[in-house]
Amino acid sequence: MASITTAVGAEQTAVSKLGGPASPFFLENNGYTDSDLHGGIIGVYTERHAQNSEDAVLELYINTETHVTTILDNKLHFERSHSCNLQTYEIVQALCYKRGIDVKKMKWSAMTVDDSSTLKTIRDYRESNGLGPRDDIKLVPTSQDWPIFADTRYHEFAYKMVPGANIDRIIVKSQTSLDTDVSGDEASAPEMIMFSFTMPLNDNEAAIDQHAAELAAEDNLNAGLQAARNAIDAYVKNIQETTSA
Prior knowledge:
- The protein is of the alpha+beta class.
- The chain has 2 domains: 26-104, no CATH class; 108-244, no CATH class.
- It is built from 7 helices and 8 strands, in the order αββββαβαβααββαα.
- The chain has an 8-stranded mixed sheet with strand order 1-2-3-4-5-8-7-6, sandwiched between helices.
């Protein structure tokens, strides 16, 4: 399974999409189909990307226990231009509605970074802030450097994903690929960028220990990423067994 590809272009902004993400057959009416693949991974397809509709334009894993959505492969920017082209957040919302998942419970969205501009931004940030090449980057809206990562296309993918929510944290991790066909030293340790979603709090909720809440949220994120890895393991194993049968 490929990692996210966002090397060129930004998401298309359609002007005459049919319906909204909560509408019945929203994906189909706009030229997309979706399939539940082995291991819980969801594939989204469109003939505007591949005429045979066999190459997914988007692959993702939605973990309903940890409420972490992991975008595994994103090729939406390779679609042929059309007024019905959908953005990442619209497809994610539509998939949630279709499967009875409350999108407003989503806590994190994780994406692999592989466009050269953002990778350079990450490298430069670590160097200028005295961080090691694989040290985590953690930012909140009040951080001086928040705009550096809030201006990336990944933030654009995420910021509308959960209606009514704010992005209250950005974490960048350098880690081995979510792909399972590389291992150990052979993996290129790509960057993962993750966005935390929060709903506006009332006064009682705001009194919660913020530090404890942040630690719990990161534990939740790590559990969600591990679940995504497990799903990919199962998916790849199934493909290998099918092709060797």
